[in-house]
Amino acid sequence: MAKFTYDLDPVTRITASAVGPPGQRVFYIQARRGRELVSLIAEKEQVRALAQAIDRLLEELAENNPLLSSSDDLLLVSDMNLEEPIEPRFRIAQMGIGYDAERDMVILVMQGYREEESEEEPPTARFGASRQQMRALSEHATNVVARGRKICGNCGRPIDPDGHFCPQMN
Question: CA-CA distance, 14 to 81, in Å (whole number)?
Fold first, then answer.
């Protein structure tokens, strides 16, 4: 079995959020197991892709096994904010998601970047969460990503608070 740098399986809490003003936000995926809190830096598109992958996985599970209906996923999670202190362990390079049917857990595996000129393996993390926790993560992550800068209807680029140069209007 693979050894992970950070192994929080199962987590007691998992979230994804951002810090900073739109256009300058830093995105994090954060999980807690007991006293251990792990924060990882992610790209906005990684957070968006994770939310979409969770939704697809949960839909597929419900289709293949009607006993795992999405009504089971209704869990009231009130606080999805990041916990302090936010001390990132590494920047995510790759992510994978899967399902452990034996334990009815969704498993999220992440790998960081290899340090330049280092022969050490890149850091890794595994977060195991319930379907309910992952549904809440997906919904919250989708909302966080959507709170970014508005998109120009002409060129499709983000509009900064002080405007932007639109090549389509040239």
Answer: 10
pTM for the model:
0.86
Tokens 């992550």: give the residue: 141
End-to-end CA distance of the chain: 57
Q: How many CB atoms lie within 10 A of CB 70?
A: 12
Q: What is the pLDDT of residues 74-113, one digit of tens each?
A: 455 668 999 999 999 999 999 999 999 999 999 999 999 9
Question: What SS3 class is residue 43?
Answer: coil
**CA 25 to centroid of chain Cα atoms:** 14
Cα–Cα–Cα angle for 110, 91, 100, rounded to 5 degrees:
10
Contact 131, 72 (CB under 8 A): yes
8 A C-beta contact, residue 14 and residue 133: yes
CB 90 within 8 A of CB 123: yes
